[in-house]
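Expect chain and fold; thus:
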Amino acid sequence: IFAAANDVDFVKVEGSGGSVGYYSDLQEAFDSVSEGDTVTLLKDYTFNYTGKSVTGIDFPEVKFTFDGGGFTITDAFDRKLHGNHDDRGSYKITGGDVTIKNVTFKMEDSVTATDQGHSNGCFLVTNGTVRLNNVTITHYYGHNGGAIWGQGSGKIIIEDNVTISDCHAKSRGIIGLYFLDADINGLAVEGGTGDAIVAGPVGAKVEVT
């Protein structure tokens, strides 16, 4: 695929073999990803799944890089308002090895943080490896993890320059862990509430430097 971006395209996918594709929908872009690809955000992006059966964005279960290009992704879907109390986050990672960099993840200001029911903050990570570098997560609420809830056999690696601001956990931590390991470096937490910054490491190995 060799294509040119147009005004409605928000995302570029560059294949390891040299192919390039452009998409207006982030989930469609992720669904096209293969091993070794790079996904790049081209502008600020807002998603709202009101009236749809899906409630968040699923990351592909391959090794790839997601470069936000310095832009912001806003989740404008009020889950509680629409009767959805699912146990996922805005973004779900169930496998693979993803590097996420140069991006801000934000819950829409008009969506009250404490109205998000049992959703698990920004990210729900169940398996695979997630590497965060130059990432901001802001204005999220989670039942178990205000910003990130990790549950499974994977690993969260906070590499450098990661800021979590105004994120709140009903229980456990702003980062909540349950049988999922974490290496935490270069993390700044601004505001927010929870039992701790990193809490609930049941069976998890956590290294903070």
User: Anything to note?
Assistant: The CA atoms of residues 173 and 196 lie 5 Å apart. The longest helix spans residues 26-31. The chain has a mean pLDDT of 83.
